[in-house]
Design goal:
single chain, 152 residues, 8 helices
Length: 152
Amino acid sequence: METVAQFFIDWGYWGLFVSALVAGSILPFSSEAVMVILVGMGLDPAWCLVAASAGNTLGGMTCYWIGTLGRTEWITRLGVSTRQLARARKFLAGRGALMGFFAFLPTIGEALAIVLGLMRSNAWLTGVSMLAGKALRYAVILASFEGVATLF
């Protein structure tokens, strides 16, 4: 894993973008560590925020796309009743795409994006709300890092 992280770090902003894309998809990776290292090396925090947010959103939208390939029958075979599915659709109706904001959450974020794709929420609104949530998360991480770095 250390070699992979070093590869992303060597590529600077593009490496951060790709690491965030990988982390936003269903593959496990920590783009936050890459971002913090790059900022610590002197790269512009604003551009790191842009690269990480854009890459992670694109990765999250791959999960959304995977969801659009799904079929309701597949979900019911996994033990979710049609009644539960109808309730989920009703809950997401009209505001489902805005729930993309919470795709920044670890583990359940990918599942949320897949369900939004399965429910066929508005792709543009999902992407924009997902970008807002992921950018906010990276901004908080950067602010925390900057605050801790000033202590030393």
